[in-house]
Amino acid sequence: MLETEFYRVKRLPPYVFAEVNAMKARARAAGDDIIDLGMGNPDQPTPQHIVDKLAEAAANPRAHRYSASRGIPGLRRALAAYYERRFNVTVDPDTETIVTLGSKEGLANLAQAITSPGDIVLAPNPSYPIHAFGFIIAGGSVRHIPCEPNQAFLDALERGVRHSVPKPIAVLLNYPSNPTALLANLDFYGQVVDFCRYHGIWILSDMAYSEIYFGDEPPPSILQVPGAREVAVEFTSLSKSYNMPGWRIGFAAGNRHLIGALTRIKSYLDYGAFTPVQVAATAALNGPQDCVAEIRSLYKDRRDAMVEAFDQTGWSIPSPPATMFAWAPLPPAFAHLGSLEFSKLLLQEAKVAVSPGIGFGEHGDQHVRIALVENRQRIRQAARNIKTFLSNYDKVLEDSERKRTEV
Ligand SMILES: Cc1ncc(COP(=O)(O)O)c(C=O)c1O
Questions:
Q1: Where are the chain's structural domains?
Q2: Residue 167 buriedness (CB in 10 A; 0-12 / 13-18 / 19+)
Q3: Start and end of every Aminotransferase class I/classII large domain (predicted)?
Q4: pLDDT-based confidence at 140, cuts 50/70/90?
Q5: pTM score, whole prediction
Q6: Residues with Cβ within 6 A of ligand 1?
Q7: Which of 3.40.630.30, 3.40.50.300, 2.30.40.10, 3.40.640.10 is the CATH number of 48-286?
């Protein structure tokens, strides 16, 4: 008898979003116009000069060979230049940077590289799934901590160290945060760095939304904290900053032992992104940056339209200071349903798809994540549909209760 209950696969619960996605596909197949605010998949094209660079590089047969697993030197230098100009942080492109196939791949493979079976990692809940599951796939165990960057977080770190045997090997940070849109400041990073240096704990900081912020202060990098690179590595990505999610280009920068570990493991796994993609990514980082400001301002416009339009529905949502997501508490009348049932109702009754917060962890179950990936008109249309749905909610709840008890 063949064993089909594979150890790693067994540790991965079914993907919560799959249920809503399947409903969405069925509704679309039946002809419904679904307004999709579910996935964080940027809907706008990559800036033209980057696409042109890709085409130019792809025309060169020399670029068709295997590339460099840790990234072409010019791209690693471009990342170092970005850190210098944006954060005033100097990293050595040779020993303190690596190019990854998107930041998700980098996070997952670094988890593989540093985790022994049974190792404990501190990961926020709710969080982007790979933050916890990267380590779970690698055979580790996760102790959940809150994601708000405040004293409660620091207390949870303290308890994590006191009550875990063996002591945690790493902590994951993600600011600006998906799904909560929370931001951290340098003071907070400084306290986490001090704590982790003292206790000998690695820090993996995910900064995929480094450029998607709406206030006057750009989010800081943890590498700005003096001494941070003794314990920390930071992931960044072109997916959101330059509308390049499908290109699969991200980076890690920071501690040279962590960069070295990721470099080693990746040298066994891949040959690097297609060279023309890396050449175009270099052009993105080194070229004109007004496209980044335009992308930021598009999300800000949509955010403002969303917050204003939702205010009219009776379901007010907090205005996110960064990222491409609003993290919305369930309307009180629906709180008892939890986020998955509420998301299904919203899809069925208002034709609006959102991501149920439970998909980001148990502490997300009183929220849904609403992505800013449709234009302003569609966002307003979504709010109108939701308003009609909410104004009718007694009947909707009654019907849904009846259907549930009939099953
Ligand atoms: C917090 C966070 N980290 C990483 C990623 C993955 O980005 P990439 O396309 O660089 O793999 C995402 C994508 O949605 C994200 O939200």
A1: 7-45+291-406, 48-286
A2: middle
A3: 33-385
A4: very high
A5: 0.95
A6: 40, 102-104, 128, 174, 178, 206, 208, 237, 239, 245, 250
A7: 3.40.640.10
